[in-house]
Amino acid sequence: MKKIESGSLAVMLDEETLGLRIEKDGVVWNTDPKKTPELIFAEGTYRFLDAEEISHEVYSFGVGCGIRSRYAGFAGTPYAFETIIWIEAVDETLWMEWIPLCEEGLHPVKVLWPTAMEFTNGRDDWYTLLTEGQGLLIPNTWKTELGKLSFDGRFETSGGYMPWFGQVKERCGYTAICTTPWNVGYQAEHPAGGYSLKRKPEEYTVGMILRLTEGSLAPVDCVEDGTDCGRADQCVTVLLWKKLNDAINGVVDNITLADLVDWQMQKANEYVI
Prior knowledge:
The structure is a single chain. The chain is built from three helices and 15 strands. By secondary structure, the protein is of the alpha+beta class. The chain folds into three domains: about 1-120, no CATH class; about 120-195, no CATH class; about 200-270, no CATH class. It is globular, with a radius of gyration of 24 Å.
């Protein structure tokens, strides 16, 4: 196991499986053990682990620390590349780079790396954000199966208007941003499953749903019901916070799911290609 860490971020690479374990502020992210990094060539598909020569090293440099992995020799050719996973020390940004070293002998079509995160817990506070179309927010409990992505999920197309995606679980998440998006895309799978409404859409307000999933909507604790602040008599801004709280509740408690559906239908009718 190779490990790097900086501040509250730690990354571990399993040399046997090439699986990644990422820890940040007590939250753990693991890549899906059922998936392995692969190269798709015109001549065939090979796993990174099929390389004749594989090496991993932990190293440090001026702006951070990383794990450099080198893979060489596929199908009897000298084809070789390296991956670098590194943490930028100043802000704990995690970078992942795939770098070709020798391109002789094979003709690459796709590089499937890094692999997807393990993300199958059936909870509605686990969700994925995609930039397909006008954007998708997909809770793990969403009952509709995700179909084929437009343009195979290529960035800079309607399948991925912006070169990023993200996932959130239990209020902690990540955003994966591609800095070279012109020949890159993403893959996403979501089987059918999730909740169904027990009442009519017009009987659910946005406020009800937000309080159930997010908790209190109060901008500050002191304006919540039952909260006693000893400084309320001297606080200049308490009236501001109360007015803001009333304004927020006045909006979300007067918009229903049925209203949102109507607005979406209107937008769909206005959409012009």
